[in-house]
Structure formats: structure tokens, C-alpha cells
Specification:
single chain; alpha/beta; Metallo-beta-lactamase, Chain A; 8-stranded mixed sheet; 26% strand
């Protein structure tokens, strides 16, 4: 149980012989623009005894705890791409897993080519902190220290976490490249986490017949309004329009791929309380299935 004095070590092994449900929780629904009410992009997938984190933006560790999962319980951390707003809490995750675990623990990170370089830099940044903690705590000092294994993945790859099969697909967030999305399959249930991307054939393949499809979205009409209010930032704001899916794009993708539930996240600009129906309506113009949008810690099950 969570909250006990001794935390078990998270592993890749399944702790459930049958799949009762697949749960997807939006830990952070924000964007690079700071918002007091929204953590950075991060999503938790839970199925067959696995707790799988996809992306880890600012405030991820706090939201993860809010979802009832302490960092040592994570099976793996998956990164869709290496934009700072999607990885800024990786250092907190790695450190928290290490200092909260009563035994040596390995953090497994999967991400596109370039992830190893990011992790190498991260460990260099944390070297002094690691030294301080080893100097202070004999049990940490006698252990192997922070341990991270990185698996760089490419479109077409697949791997398993316990009983959960993860399929890697190409996404289109150019000029950011490479970028990937993930399709989670277990017990006949499917969840697709696309990350930042515009519609493309490879995204359709990842989403085909998914029970849950999570898409980062923006509202071009609201971005245009921001350009009027912030003319000095207009060129930069205009740039973001051509490498993210709009809410309507997400609706079209969901419809085209026979998705059951469309889960919107990474709202640009930030969705204000009470605006959920307005955002959902834009997707519903193209998709007749279930559409969910909301604050951090919004979740759906399949």
C-alpha cells in the first residue's frame, strides 16, 4: 500500500494476472507558458500492475503523488520528445526515486534518439547532489548511486513492460525531430499517447481502434487573439500553429481512427475553468465519441 514506511521497488514485472482496467490520468495539462493551476505535460498510464509515465513536465512529481503513485512505484518513464516543457521534472523523478527507495533502484527511461545525451547531462548536473547525499547517508554511500538505463527507440520498435506491450510510432512535430508517440496494448485494451504532433498517417496507425487517445492540442482562434494582444510575440506565436494539432484536428483524427474516447491535454493557451464545454465542442464537430477535457488529474478508464 502507498503511504507505508517502506516503499517497494518498482519493477518491469506484472503484479496482476488479469487486466481489469486501463487507466489514463492527465498529471499535467499545461504548456511552456507557466500556469498556477496546471503542471507541465505529463500523463500516467496504469494497466496490469504497471505505472508508466509519459513525459515529465514541471510539477510532475507533485501531480504523480496526487494521483496516488510515489516515484519509486513507476515502472518506466517514456519521453515523446526532448522539448524542455516535456522533460523538466526528469531530474526530480530520478532523485526522488533514489532517495525514497530502501534498496537500490534503477530508473528505466525510453525516448527518441538524443535521450541518452539528455540523461548524461542530467547526471552531470546532479553529481554534486548525489555526492552530498552519499556523504550524509551511509546506506546510500554503500550503494551503487543513481542508476538510469536509457533505451533510445525509433518508429516501428516495440517493447514490453510487464504484460503491457508498447508500440513506438513516428509523429510530426517538425522542426523538432525525432519525435514519437506510444501505443499501449494489454488484454484487448489500447491507449495511444501522441505527444506533440500534427495529423499524419503514422499517428493514424498508432490511434487505430484505440479505447483512449490522448492528444496535446491548441486553439488557433485563441492563439490569434494572443497575437493581437502581444504583437511583439506574434511571429513566435504564429510558429506554434504549424507543429501542434488543433482541437478540431484531434477530433478528426479520433473519428478517422475509430477511437472510443478522446482525451485532450496540453492546452494552448491554458483552458480556463468553465471553458471545457467550449473546447470539447470544437472536437465534437468532427467526432461523435466520448471527449474529455479538464484540470490536472483528470482521468479516464477503459
Amino acid at each position: 500500500m502507498l503511504g507505508t514506511a517502506t516503499l517497494p521497488i518498482a519493477t518491469h514485472e506484472s503484479s496482476a494476472s488479469t487486466v481489469e482496467y486501463m487507466k489514463v490520468t492527465l498529471l499535467g495539462t499545461g504548456s511552456p507558458i507557466p500556469d498556477a493551476n496546471r503542471a507541465g505535460p505529463s500523463t500516467l498510464v496504469q494497466a496490469a500492475g504497471q505505472h508508466i509515465l509519459v513525459d515529465c513536465g514541471r510539477g510532475c512529481v507533485m501531480r504523480l503523488t496526487g494521483a496516488g503513485v510515489f516515484p519509486p512505484f513507476l515502472s518506466a518513464i517514456l519521453l515523446t520528445h526532448l522539448h524542455s516543457d516535456h522533460i523538466s521534472d526528469l531530474n526530480d523523478l530520478v532523485t526522488s526515486r533514489w532517495v525514497m527507495s530502501p534498496q537500490p533502484i534503477v530508473t528505466h527511461v525510453y525516448g527518441p534518439v538524443g535521450t541518452q545525451r539528455v540523461v548524461d547531462g542530467l547526471l552531470q548536473m546532479l553529481a554534486l547532489d548525489e555526492q552530498y547525499r552519499c556523504d550524509h547517508h551511509a546506506d546510500l554511500r554503500s550503494g551503487p548511486g543513481m542508476q538510469i538505463t536509457v533505451t533510445e527507440v525509433s518508429p516501428g520498435d516495440s517493447f514490453t513492460l510487464g504484460d503491457v506491450r508498447v508500440v513506438v510510432g513516428r509523429t510530426d512535430h517538425r522542426p523538432v525531430a525525432p519525435t514519437v508517440g506510444f501505443r499501449f496494448e494489454v488484454g484487448g485494451k489500447v491507449a495511444t499517447l501522441a505527444g506533440d504532433t500534427v495529423p499524419c498517417d503514422e499517428l493514424d496507425a498508432l490511434c487505430k481502434d484505440a479505447d483512449i487517445y490522448v492528444q496535446t492540442v491548441l486553439r488557433p482562434d485563441m492563439v490569434d487573439a494572443m497575437k493581437q494582444m502581444l504583437p511583439a510575440q506574434a511571429p513566435r506565436l504564429n510558429d506554434i500553429l504549424n507543429y501542434h494539432s488543433s482541437v478540431e484536428d484531434a477530433g478528426r483524427t479520433a473519428a478517422r481512427c475509430n477511437v472510443k474516447t478522446l482525451l485532450l491535454t496540453h492546452y494552448v493557451p491554458a483552458m480556463q475553468p468553465g471553458q471545457e464545454a467550449e473546447w470539447i465542442a470544437q472536437a465534437a464537430a468532427h467526432f461523435s465519441g466520448n471527449i474529455v477535457a479538464g484540470p490536472d488529474l483528470t482521468s479516464v478508464e477503459a
